[in-house]
Structures are given as structure tokens and as C-alpha cells.
Specification:
Helix content: 25-40%
Number of strands: 16
Largest sheet: 7 strands, parallel
Structural class: alpha/beta
Number of helices: 10
Number of domains: 2
Bound molecules: magnesium ion
Radius of gyration: 18 Å
Length: 260
């Protein structure tokens, strides 16, 4: 692990970034990263974004990133929902039973997926704010009978001010427990599928993945064979690198500490 220099940063053709902890924290924009990314994009580098959140459509993030000045379009923001749609299409799957948000359904529909418990080729599970016993029973019965089990992402919870918000991983855990079987594929970080989908047209390019969390961003980027940068603007600090034993290629206090 080395501290990132301006030369290091400039040697990459494409920068793929996590959102929360890199671009913003909650409602607050992290100017020290955003200003540098805007400049790199203006200089012609590919700048792309990746999030495990499947409860928002890619368009939601496109809007928010445009409001910060980024030139982003379809395909520049890869959510775990979008990557799940790409994965299903790649696998030739067109019918699913979905436990998840309306945003997840909307994205999957674009990939030609129809929704029905009967004859479903796959059970897709994402964060579902309306999760209930009926959905648990249906999903578990399908998984138990051998239908392929795909999770959008493994995050069990998100910390919030007064406690935690249960995430997709909590719903996946309930279905796994009832069905006696773990997911066949987990698309989101730290698993390679989402990284593969985000970089599949960048094979000839040098790609740097930027994130704030070691056990999702850096672990996932490393596993996917990408160079990784830990920015200290979010969850993890340098002291966590040794504690967790997950080593990024580089670290930087923020991008503006490297280039300004
Ligand atoms: Mg993050």
C-alpha cells in the first residue's frame, strides 16, 4: 500500500467510484473528492459510479450526479439492481420472483424480466421495505425447491441516526434460513459480479476503483483484479487496514490531497 501521488492518479484511464463516503455523506457533498473527479472527467477520463443500493433507480443517481456537475448518462451509474439485470440477461433468464423495491423491479423489467412466482427461473432478493411473511414463504419455497437464488447485495444493515435500517442481506438471511440454502450468486460488493458489469467495456483501459470501505469496496475491487484506492473521507481510516487485513493498492486522505 502506498500513498497515491498525482502521477499515479493520472496514469489511469478510468476511475470507478463508490458513492456514499466518496461523493457525499448523506446529504453533504464531499467537495475534496468531487472537484478532482470533475476535473479528471473534463480531462477525458472515464468516471463511473457504483453502489450496492438497489432501492433507487440508476436515473435517481444520474440526476444527483448531474446536479454536482458530472456528465453522466445511462451506464455510468451501476447499482446492484442494474448489475443484477445485466447478470440475468447474460444468463438468459427472463422470469423471476422478486423480493425487492419498486426501483429494482423497474430496472429488471428493462432487461426483459417478467415477474411471477409460477415458473420463476430465479428468485431475486434485494432490500424490500414491504418485506413480510407471505413473501418470505414464497421465496423460501422456490429456493427450497431448487430455483436459482440471487441476492442484489449482502449488506445486512445501514447505520442511521437512531439505530439501523435492515438491508437486503437481512432479507436474504431470512430466506436462506427458511430454505436451508445460501444464495447462488450475490451480485453486489464485495463480490466480483458488480465490478465485472461496471467495467465490461473497459477491458483495454487502466481502471482505478475508489472507495471508503475496506470490507466492501477495497476487498471487492481487489478480488475483481482492479487497482484500489482507499479514501479516508468515509467509514474507514488507515488504522482499519491492519485491523481488517484488507490492503488497498493506494490510500489518500482525499482526492484533493493528491491533486488540486
Ligand atoms: Mg461507501
Amino acid at each position: 500500500m502506498k500513498r497515491l501521488t498525482a502521477e499515479d492518479l493520472k496514469s489511469y484511464d478510468a476511475i470507478v467510484c463508490d458513492l456514499d463516503g466518496v461523493i457525499y455523506r448523506g446529504r453533504r457533498v464531499i467537495e475534496g473528492n468531487v472537484s478532482v473527479l470533475l476535473r479528471l472527467q473534463r480531462e477525458g477520463k472515464v468516471v463511473r459510479f457504483l453502489t450496492n443500493n438497489s432501492t433507487r433507480t440508476p436515473e435517481h443517481y444520474v440526476e444527483r450526479l448531474r446536479s454536482l456537475g458530472f456528465a453522466v448518462g445511462e451506464g455510468d451509474v451501476i447499482t446492484s439492481g442494474l448489475a443484477t439485470g445485466m447478470y440475468l440477461k447474460e444468463e438468459g433468464i427472463s422470469s423471476a420472483y422478486v423480493v425487492g423495491s419498486p426501483a429494482l423491479r423497474e430496472v429488471l423489467r428493462r432487461y426483459g424480466v417478467r415477474f411471477s412466482p409460477k415458473g420463476a427461473e430465479v428468485v431475486v432478493v434485494g432490500m424490500d421495505p414491504r418485506f413480510n411473511y407471505r413473501k418470505l414463504r414464497r421465496a423460501a419455497s422456490l429456493v427450497y425447491s431448487g430455483v436459482r437464488f440471487v441476492a442484489t447485495n449482502p449488506d445486512t444493515s445501514l447505520p442511521v441516526e437512531n439505530g439501523v435500517l435492515p438491508g437486503a442481506g437481512s432479507m436474504v438471511a431470512a430466506i436462506s434460513a427458511a430454505a436451508g440454502r445460501n444464495p447462488d450468486v450475490i451480485v453486489g460488493k464485495p463480490n466480483p459480479t458488480i465490478f465485472r458489469m461496471a467495467t465490461r467495456d473497459l477491458k483495454e483501459k487502466r481502471v482505478l476503483f475508489v472507495g471508503d470501505r475496506l470490507n466492501t469496496d477495497i476487498l471487492g475491487g481487489n478480488r475483481a483484479g482492479l487497482d484500489t484506492l482507499l479514501v479516508l473521507t468515509g467509514v474507514h481510516g488507515l488504522e482499519d487496514v491492519e485491523r481488517l487485513g484488507i490492503i488497498p493498492t493506494y490510500y489518500a486522505p482525499s482526492l484533493s490531497s493528491v491533486l488540486n
